[in-house]
Write a structure and sequence with these properties.
This protein is α/β, with parallel strands linked by helices and about 280 residues long. It has 2 domains: about 100 residues, no CATH class; about 130 residues, 2-Layer Sandwich (60s Ribosomal Protein L30, Chain: A), CATH 3.30.1330. Helices cover about 40% and strands about 25% of the residues. The protein has 8 helices and 10 strands. It has a 4-stranded mixed sheet with strand order 4-2-5-10. The mean pLDDT is about 95.
Length: about 280
């Protein structure tokens, strides 16, 4: 049995959240740079260059990439041979969130009561935490700072099995087209297909942790992702919604078995500032 002090979790989560809010993911930078060659709109090219310049200034000045520093989402893999000493895992992660957002001067966006009072919790907690028990003696935490603008444009629909692949493409394109400039394109699009309503939504969020150009290990799904990306980029929404060919940088899709009568599809949009980080203890 391997023992991990909860304070180590607090410190690791705190530092990682500051890092991902300031430093744009290198994979996203690479995708933006490559998209300059594909973008035909003069304004689109200018906007992509501004996004890259913004990322350079953020690192240079140690400032957040975006004023919306998001809600923290964590996917946690707990090894069966791991024991947390001190606070519980959930309390440690939330303490790390609170410390990181205070230390990094990051905007706190969480409200305690979603319906009536909507009072800010003051430290960006609680985080949204998904925990999975896995073999081994490691603790792995994937964290994201998910902005409200892109999250608000995400949707889920219970399609009919007869809608098939084309129905999935049509729904994703509809979501992106209706979102327009609101999620701050160019986007990274996470798609979850299968399972049940809540499983599809969870898959779509998990898909956002994959680099935008990472090939799906399933060749058929990899081709399907490419087809979706091509159709999305035909919409003409373009960078920041001002027109162009680069509406999305990538589409990542995860699937799960489902009921014979069901075809749940969830589309989770992310702006270009896809703030994700990995921690291993």
């Amino acid at each position: 049995m391997r023992v991990i002090e909860s304070q180590k979790i607090v410190e690791a989560v705190s530092e990682k959240l500051i890092e991902i809010n300031v430093e744009l993911d290198p994979a996203i930078c690479k995708s933006l740079e490559e998209s300059l060659e594909k973008e035909e709109s003069f304004l689109g090219k200018e906007l992509i260059n501004q996004l890259l310049e913004n990322s350079r200034i953020a690192i240079q000045e140690n400032l957040p990439i975006c004023q919306d520093t998001g809600v923290v989402v964590a996917f946690v893999e707990v090894g069966e041979e791991v024991r947390i000493k001190g606070e519980t895992l959930e309390k440690a992660i939330n303490a790390g969130v609170a410390k990181g957002y205070e230390k990094g001067y990051l905007r706190k966006s969480m409200v305690s009561d979603p319906i009536f009072k909507r009072v800010n919790t003051g430290n960006n907690t609680p985080a949204i935490i998904h925990t999975e028990l896995v073999p081994g003696d490691k603790l792995k935490i994937k964290v994201a700072a998910k902005g409200g603008g892109s999250e608000n444009m995400s949707k889920l629909k219970m399609l009919k099995p007869a809608d098939g692949p084309q129905g999935i493409i049509d729904f994703i394109c509809q979501v992106v087209d209706e979102a327009g400039p609101n999620p701050c394109p160019p986007l990274v699009i996470g798609v979850g297909v299968g399972g049940t309503m809540e499983k599809a939504a969870l898959l779509s969020k998990k898909a956002l942790f994959m680099p935008p150009h990472e090939k799906n290990p399933d060749p058929e799904l990899a081709d399907f992702e490419e087809e979706i990306l091509k159709e999305v980029n035909k919409l003409g929404v373009g960078p920041l919604g001002l027109g162009g060919r680069i509406t999305a940088l990538g589409v990542n899709l995860l699937t799960y078995p489902c009921h014979i009568a069901s075809l749940p599809v969830a589309v989770n949009l992310n702006c270009h500032a896809a703030r994700h980080g990995k921690i291993e203890l």
